[in-house]
Amino acid sequence: MKIGIAYDLKQSFQVAADAPEDRLEEYDSEATVDAIAEVLRALGHTPEKLGGGRAFVERVLREPPELVFNFAEGYGTRSREAHLPSLLELLDIPFTHSDPLTLAVTLDKAIAKRMVASVGLPTPRFVVVERPEELEGARELVDATGHPLAFPVFAKPLYEGSSMGIRRASRIEDRAALHERAAALLRDYRQPVLIEEFCSGPEFTVGVLGNGERVRPIAVMEVTPRKGAIESFVYSLEVKRNYLEEVEYHVPPKREPAVLAEIERVALGCYRALGCRDVARVDVRMDREGQPKFLEVNPLPGLHPVTGDIVIMSKRMGLSYQDLIGGIVEEARLRLGL
Length: 338
Prior knowledge:
Blueprint: E1 2-6, H1 30-42, E2 46-51, H2 53-62, E3 67-70, H3 83-91, H4 100-107, H5 109-118, E4 126-129, E5 153-157, E6 171-172, H6 175-189, E7 193-197, E8 203-209, E9 216-225, H7 237-241, H8 243-246, E10 247-250, H9 257-273, E11 279-286, E12 292-298, H10 309-316, H11 321-336
Parallel strand pairs: 1-2, 1-3
Antiparallel strand pairs: 4-7, 5-6, 5-7, 8-9, 8-11, 9-10, 11-12
Helix pairs in contact: 1-11
């Protein structure tokens, strides 16, 4: 097949001088695009780099591919990941990964959590704050069901990815620190802030592949700190950028089969509840009672051939990079009847 590759590169954007230093964290490098193109070529396809934004629109209108391998992040709004897929749906051009609705819903962490909770899957209690004044004077934070949130809590931008805005200081012990952190996030990221109860148990991420009856976990990966206690560990941007020294990845985790089965159950349930397609990575963390709870899902998981979490876990389970990329294409092909 002739497969166009949709993507956004860091160097494609300019940001304001006062923007957060991680403003372009979620965008890709040429190394990822080249690696995907090489795999597609090795599998007998004809890849074409289409990029993103207006350049993508011009290229796809001029010469539509048979399939678009889409991992474009978009830019500027909470529905940015849905921009190109919406265009592709309009033009009736098939594409990999989730549809525009799922991509928009999952980027807004509060909407995703509400949908997951609506089908009975566990997620930490949370509130959304739009102005610093909302934290002033109130004795406690109360979620939509009337339950107060217990400290420690965790604060992050409502619709960012790639750990943007997540630092070690995101785990917060008291109201004074929460007010300071939330005010900084509101100022720097110019969007609401999600505040949720902090889960103090171990952290896991689950790679999921497939559609319908073929949905299955690729692997479960546990992330543990090399320094400090699990109870206060934050898988922050600083940690991810220095992952070789900061954390250990356990694939599969050294946990009881029943524990892993429950983690997979939660992850697969969230994948289905949110309408994910082809592939996604679901983040889960245990609370103090040992119950795995949904944190968020990435329906466009990073595919860097060395540092992508889903790539790391796949390789440790014996799935090569070519197997992973080829599997995504094959799942899309079967779903679309190509």
